[in-house]
Prior knowledge:
Elements: H1 13-17, E1 23-27, H2 32-43, E2 47-52, H3 55-67, E3 72-76, H4 82-96, E4 101-104, H5 119-148, E5 151-156, H6 172-192, E6 197-204, H7 213-219, H8 221-226, H9 240-247, E7 258-261, H10 265-269
Parallel strand pairs: 1-2, 1-4, 2-3, 4-5, 5-6, 6-7
Amino acid sequence: MTLLATTSKPRTIQQLFDLKGKTALVTGGSRGLGLQLAQALGEAGAKVMLSSRKAEDLIEAAAELKSAGIEVDWIAADCSKEADIRALADETIKRFGHVDILVNNAGAAWGAPAEDHPVEAWDKVMNLNIRGYFILSQHIAKHSMIPRKSGRIINVASIAGLGGNPREMTTVAYNTSKGAVVNFTRALGCEWGAYNITVNAICPGFFPSKMTVGTLKAMGEEKLASHAPLGRLGDDEDLKGLCVLYASDAGKHITGQWLAVDGGVSVVTGG
């Protein structure tokens, strides 16, 4: 083990969490959890690149962040398509010079009983939820983070990747993909630690969003909230703190880890 001696004065907690001068790329960043994560990084001082498929959503999201004093740009891209992913990475590096923080958040879900789950839907979920994460992480690392020996990668997984579901929730592809994200995070964190790149995952529980609207309607918000020891769903603030911890020097000695932000649901279910 190498011990790093330092004669400099330890930084304050405010300095450790400060992201001024940093650049961040957030996929699926035009709404929902992705926009919350982008807001957190921007509020901490980072310059933020938003990406999602629809330009009109990105324009609206960018305007919202700019009104809060956040420096932001956007690129429309489909993160299920390799050509789009590579173009997104290259254009972000071109505009920003480099990428300090990558948030892999773009995702899709599909509900169907496992015995009837369409193979095409399985492929759609896997291509976006894990294959896309890998391709973008690889490209950003190879062309920005590894040469600079510095980087933070944050993968949005889910508590659905930590175990099974109630019987009424039939999302086998989504659960499988998010379980893959958790182990992808572990493996990549181990491999890229040599380049001073940390790789960590956030595992949200139920948050109101476009992706969860069907489940919330089918099961009821009150019922889902009752499963959590804290008795509520996630809100517009609940992912911010963990995101900035992972992205900043406050979390520089954390890698290959995941943390559930779910009000305690995964503790009850044993995830």
